[in-house]
Amino acid sequence: MRLTTLSPDVTQAGVPAEWEPHEACWLAFPSHEELWEDRLDAVRQEFVELCRAIADLDPKTGKRRGERLEILVLDEAGKAEARSLLGDLFPRFHIIPFGDIWLRDIGAIFQVQPDKTLAAIRFNFNGWGEKYILSGDLEVAGKMSGILDVPQIYFPYTLEGGAVEIDGEGTALTTRECLLNPNRNPQATEAELEKVLRSAFGVRKVLWLNRGLLNDHTDGHIDTIARFVAPGTVLCMEPQTSDDPNAEVLAEIAKDLSQMTDACGRQLDIKLIPSPGKICDRDGQIMPASYLNFYIANTTVVVPTYGSKYDAQAVEAIGQFFPNRRTVGCPAKNILLGGGAFHCITQQQPIIKA
């Protein structure tokens, strides 16, 4: 494995949009009883439903129509447990220590180089602003690139994968609450971080929103508040009731995006889907629930649902933007207890085209 450290001024190729074809999807099998406590079995059940939707087995032949699953497990016992639940999906298992399942934030981000080869991007990771420091998380990205034997490109800045959303045509979305937070990059300026994003993700223009959802311990990750579904088209959520805890911020996000143009000079086309509304844990605490934390797989789009009366409406609304994929709603409220949903626990590996 080759390690390269880049300054923000170095321009590489880019990270493809998520709707481009994938070779595989990387995930980490829920394993830590001390974190999930009595919800671990329920979290595993939701994880398995997500994996089944991504693998998308043909009901007639049993063959996988979707992308390959690359699943991290802690040890041989964890591998056996995961295989008992997922073995018919033809996954590949990798014994790699990890702190928890949030692979988009702790894992490698895959970049396609100018010579059409794959590289793995790695940033600093500090537990979402030093909130959750878990053993193993810092090493996951490097070990993923080692498994694939691809170059590892290191950027000496703190950034999680869920903090950046790209359209594949030169535009990135992010938030000031996250990237400019003193708990991430206290000395970095907005202009400096834009250079980092241009170099790492291959974008020409960075669009900044201000803040994210209530009680989001990621400090405003973009993948819960605004998602590209095509170049120039962004999905946002719209509150359905007056007691939606994010009503004010959702209105601000839609308004701000409607005034922005992308790297190609197009005014963004903002499309609205329902917000799930007020979703609480069993202690009555408001959770950062978002339908936008969906994962775009090769043959499906997997949308997290939370037992809200707007679940079916949101799944149908998102499906309209992916006519060539099957859009599936899967329960995610137990996974959300850890702070995120399906997009947070997946990382796509793009297909390298000759």
TrEMBL record:
<dbReference type="Pfam" id="PF04371">
    <property type="entry name" value="PAD_porph"/>
</dbReference>
<protein>
    <submittedName>
        <fullName>Agmatine deiminase family protein</fullName>
    </submittedName>
</protein>
<dbReference type="GO" id="GO:0004668">
    <property type="term" value="F:protein-arginine deiminase activity"/>
</dbReference>
<dbReference type="InterPro" id="IPR007466">
    <property type="entry name" value="Peptidyl-Arg-deiminase_porph"/>
</dbReference>
<dbReference type="GO" id="GO:0009446">
    <property type="term" value="P:putrescine biosynthetic process"/>
</dbReference>
<dbReference type="GO" id="GO:0047632">
    <property type="term" value="F:agmatine deiminase activity"/>
</dbReference>
<keyword id="KW-0378">Hydrolase</keyword>
